[in-house]
Amino acid sequence: MNFLSLFVLIPTLTMGGLFLSKNLQQIRVAVATGASLLLALAVGLVFAYLGERGAGNTAEMLFTASTVWYAPLNIHYSVGVDGISVAMLLLSAVIVFTGTFASWKMDFLQKEYFLWFNLLAIGVFGFFISVDLFTMFMFYEVALIPMYLLIGVWGSGKKEYAAMKLTLMLMGGSALLLVGILGIYFHSSTTGAFTMNLQEIARAHAMPESLQRWFFPLVFIGFGVLGALFPFHTWSPDGHASAPTAVSMLHAGVLMKLGGYGCFRVAIYLMPEAAKELSWIFIILTGISVVYGAYSAIVQTDLKYINAYSSVSHCGLVLFAILMLNQTAMTGAVMQMLSHGLMTALFFALIGMIYGRTHTRDIREMGGLMKIMPYLGVCYVIAGLASLGLPGLSGFVAEMTVFVGAFQETDTFHRVFTIIACTSIVITAVYILRVVGKLLYGSVVNEHHYALTDANWYERFSTIILIAAIAGIGLAPLWLSDMIRASLGSVLAALQ
Questions:
Q1: 3 state SS for 16-31
Q2: Mean pLDDT value across residues 148-165
């Protein structure tokens, strides 16, 4: 068995362990063991990948394997990774690991919660290792389905409404995506030997440009719905606000990245002519996402809604950079996915910890928390500084790479929208500093907050890992950016 399949097998075995668990202690041992193995596997994959590249292996995808699933349609279980996939797998493993400890005190239907949580992880990991369109779409659906129950059962607030809205909008996007995938499949060859393999489709380059104009928007919007593409983003704030802490972490930190990754790996890579011709339409939409999301965050008073609209802005920046269709901007897009995934997971973890103590997310009802819970306060400041792009943290590296790449396009249209997108930096600073000042400093609004406690060991453990990853990317980004940049060759060649 190809070792990449362990990314799917480990959470599957974790689910088996959960079925056999008889008490809370056994449940915690099962999920902590599974999450730890996934993180170790992801770290090992990074070293193995860099070792292969260092030894001179220039193959587009490494550690590939393929098994026939359904011969009549030439569908295979095909796996493989490049530098971008490796980066996303590492991100996913970190978020699953820290999310597990953020849910350590889950006190309602613990076994069922972690079963659905691990099913979501199976979909995410399977999606990132797939190089077959059918396999990728299958894991994509597996990742979406658990969200309804995780929000609808274990969420808070308008959880049923949020869960239904999220499910309907994402399934609508999936319907568009399925039509687009079928269009790609039935035009994957000029000889009638149709294939679902991404590399074979790209090499054949069989789809006429006239048809690419039809199928490119379907695929880009289908994936873009999950990436909070304007105006299909409205499910995201409600979903984030109602989801339990670890689900918000995985939802914003990883699940939304499936949208950006899919737009890059399928829409851009397989339909390059349409991407060049129609990218301007989606640049307008993503530019609106970037600015609209940031402005919307300013007027919110609920901590989760603030971070949710911030995610709309930052994920919009990912799609915006991908559509620039050059190496620097695309590298920045992947760096932004990693940066946003880590810092938004940290934000949602901290918001959950604060809510668990204060029982409110309304910033108007909080104040002076830095003196009461200094550890959580310092962590929130670090997350905020990463979000607004402080040098030395991941947000600065990612956004600088995005904007430098965007400015490489010298025509007036691209330059104007790049400047518009750059204004989000100022807007982000406004709402981040406003929230930090209101939440952590000043006088204590509620005298009952004086009795609150600071972070527990498992909360400190998860936040330290996320902060270390954010600082690590910010202080030593070259190995990561070089790994990503080296994996863009086939896409850039298709765009020539």
A1: HHHHHCCCHHHHHHHH
A2: 81
Is pLDDT above 70 for 462?
A: yes
Query: DSSP state, 68?
Result: E
Predicted pLDDT of residue 89: 93
Alpha carbons 260 and 402: distance in angstroms, whole number? 14
User: Of 102-116, 309-323, 383-397, which gets the smallest average pLDDT?
Assistant: 102-116
Spatial separation of the C-alpha atoms in residues 268 and 425, rounded to whole Å: 27
Q: How far is CA 338 from the centre of its chain?
A: 7
* Residues whose CB falls within 8 Å of the CB of residue 392, separated by 6 or more in sequence, listed in order: 471, 474, 475
The rounded distance, in Å, linking the Cα atoms of 205 and 184 is: 10
Q: How many residues does the chain have?
A: 496
- Are 238 and 161 spatial neighbours (Cβ–Cβ below 8 Å)? yes
Beta bridge partners of 75: 70
Mean pLDDT of 30-45: 91
Q: Is the pTM of this model over 0.85?
A: yes
- For residue 197, the 8-state DSSP code is B
Q: Is the pLDDT confidence value at 455 over 90?
A: no
As given in the structure block, the two tokens for residue 146 are: 């658990």
Report how far Cα 357 is from the mean position of its chain's Cα atoms. Answer: 28
C-beta of residue 401 within 8 angstroms of C-beta of residue 407: no
Over residues 247-264, the mean pLDDT reads: 84
Q: What is the pLDDT of residue 284?
A: 92
Rounded to 5°, angle at Cα 479 from 473 and 483: 110
Which among 270, 128, 297, 286 is positioned nearest to 199, based on CA atoms?
Answer: 270
Pick from 320, 313, 315, 309: which is nearest to 337 by CA?
Answer: 315
**pLDDT in the model for residue 128:** 92
Cβ 121 vs Cβ 38: under 8 Å: yes
* Band of pLDDT at residue 86, cut at 50, 70 and 90: very high
Please name the helix (run of DSSP H) or strand (run of DSSP E) that holds residue 64, with its range, or none.
Answer: strand 62-70
> By three-state DSSP, how is residue 186 classified?
coil
Q: Residues 198, 204, 207, 212: is their CA dihedral positive or negative?
A: positive
In angstroms, the CA 439 to CA 449 distance is 12
